[in-house]
Amino acid sequence: xxxxxxxxxxLTRAKTLEDLQSTTEALREEFGxxxxxxxxxxxxxxxxxxxxxxxxWVDRYLEKDYLYIDPVILGCxxxxxxxxxxxxxxxxxxxxxxxxxxxEYGVGPQGFSIPVRGPNGQYALFTITDSxxxxxxxxxxxxxKRDLILIAHAFNLKALSFEDGNxxxxxxxxxxxxxxxxxxxxxxxxxxxxxxxxxxxxSTLRVYxxxxxHKLGALNTTHAVARAMSAGLIVV
Length: 236
What we know:
CATH architecture of the largest domain: 2-Layer Sandwich
Distance between the termini: 47 Å
Low-confidence stretches: none
GO biological process, one term: regulation of DNA-templated transcription
Structural class: alpha+beta
Strand order of the largest sheet: 2-1-5-4-3
CATH topology of the largest domain: Beta-Lactamase
Order of helices and strands: HHEEHHEHEEHHHHH
Protein name: Regulatory LuxR family protein
Oligomer: single chain
GO molecular function, one term: DNA binding
Keywords: DNA-binding, Transcription, Transcription regulation
Number of domains: 2
Domain HTH luxR-type: 172-232
C-alpha cells in the first residue's frame, strides 16, 4: 500500500508525458498485471495516451479502425462505473474476432476499465488487462478495485492540470538519437533506410521509436512524428 501511495505522489509531481508513461510501467509491476493503459480525450478533441500495450497492437488497432467496434470503448462511453470486460457485449462475430486478435497481440483475455470524466467534455479511460482465470480475475478486482479507482482519478487530475497549463507547450526530453530517428521517418525514410543512415540495426531503431513514442504520448509512429514536429522538436 505504501508503494501505491508513493506512486500517487509521483503522479502529482509529474511534469511530462514521460513521467506518466513511467508510472503506467510501475503500476503494471505493482499490480502484477499484463498491461496498464491510460487514454484521454481533452476538451478540444485531442487524443493522448500512455501505457504498456505494444506498438504493434496500437498500430493494428488504428489501422483497422477498431475504435468503432471495440466493446470497451463503446460500452464505457455512456457509463460512469467501472466495468469488467466480461460484462460487455462480445456476441457479434466482429467483436469476437477483435478480442481474438487482441489476445494474439498480447493484450490478455481479461480487462477492467474505469471511465473518468472531466469538465468541458474531457473523457478518459483507465484500463488494466491480464490473463488470469475468470475466478482469479474477479477476486483480484474485488481486492484492488478501490486502489484502481483512486489511481484512475489521480491520472485524470494530472491530465487536466497539463491541459490547464497548455498541454501543447510541454516539451518532452528526447535524446539526440530519438530526434534523429523521428526526423528521418518524417522525411519519408522507411525503417530500414533510417537504420542504415544512423548506422544502427533495425531492432535498435525500434527501441528509439518506442521510447520517443512513449515520451510524446503518441498512439503510433506517425503520431509521434507529428507531435514532435508540432512541438518544434524536429524539422523535416
